Fold this sequence. Notes:
- By secondary structure, the protein is mostly helical.
- It has helices spanning 2-12, 21-49, 58-79, 84-102, 128-146, 154-175, 179-194, 200-220, 222-232, 243-255, 280-312, 317-341, 359-376, 380-400, and strands at residues 109-112, 115-121, 124-126.
- It has one domain (18-382).
- It is built from 14 helices and three strands.
- A hairpin with a 2-residue loop joins strand 2 (115-121) and strand 3.
- Helix 6 runs antiparallel to helix 7 and helix 12 packs antiparallel against helix 13.
- The chain is globular, with a radius of gyration of 24 Å.
- It starts with a helix and ends in a 12-residue tail after the last helix.
Amino acid sequence: MGKVSRLIAEVRERPHHRPDYLLGLLVIALIGIGMIVIYSTGSIVNFNMTGGASDRNAFFQKQLISVAIGIAFWIFASRVHYSHWRKWALPMLIVSFVLMLLVFIPGLGLNINGASRWVRLGPLSFQPAEFLKLSLVLYFAAWLESHRDDLRRISTQLIPFALVFGLAVILVVILQRDLGTGVVVIALALTILLVSDAPLWLFGASLLSMIGLGALSIILFPYRLERLSTFLNHREDVMGADYHINQALIALGSGGLIGRGLGNSLQSYGYLPEATNDSVYAIIGEQFGLWGTAGVVMIFGLLGWRGFRIAKMAPDRFSRMVAVGITVWLLTQAIVNITAMLNLIPLTGIPLPFISYGGTSLLATMTGVGILQNISRYTEREQSYADSRIGRRDRRSRNTGFGPMRGTQKSY
């Protein structure tokens, strides 16, 4: 603990500058798109869910509350020095694993569509896997940083890492039947391992192991084979297993180039499942057309560029791994959601970051962005660039006679 405290003290003494505001603007844009879509379709979805008993836009109201709480989480994470998360990583991981196990306790866990992924505590319900993603990013970064000199010692050092990784995959993919989240967990873990200066053979072995486990998880569970069959031929059972993806493709296709217009979605009238959640990208395509869906992809691309730029300029190994992990987490989740709606990969249920309805996902991702923005305050090259700009401005002031030296000029 003494060594960690000294490292934190040294890091906190480093000069800092303003955070990456463009990253924040991109996130605000995505949240705004999500709120607009939820507002335009929420009352319709609620009307269908209640059998016509209510057309109150409860989805928009709840999401608005989640955004307000998420902003508080975002501000908190952006103000807390990133080095503190090194100490909190293990307790956060333990809490996340405990919450993951609560879904299997009768009375607390919710089983929806055959999957146990939600916990209900009184009037509140949440999805623990969303917090697990952030906890794993912080834990893997902290663990690999503290054991960087022993990464080649498989028996004593890498086995604990593999056990945590394996436990997370088992809880998510096998017990909770959440292959989409499993893909995100595997992607962020392998990427953090890649940038941790671990031996390349270790990364290759981990990658091959994950591919093998992924293939095994598909073979052992019949419903995943059914989804794979749907992906290969989505016209065999249009009213059964192929229904969801076909309705998503109809929504995207009917939007054309410019879309049907805001509030003119037909698929949200009970045709497209999870219209405000996992399938929200198809609703965007229906209402705003190709330009709308391409705009969302472009914003996520810019967000990834800013995230990797922060990672490249990060002041130390820990912050670099955290920045890479958070960025890969957000991008992988977006890619899985979007490509599934386009039938480029088998359909899997996973929210579109910042856009899909769901408070748990929004709180977790906004906290991650807050950590990323805090790291951006300490990037080294941006600090040097800011100092050089100040130096050039001072030199121009002295050369033109406007600035600190002006009062020393002689008057005749």
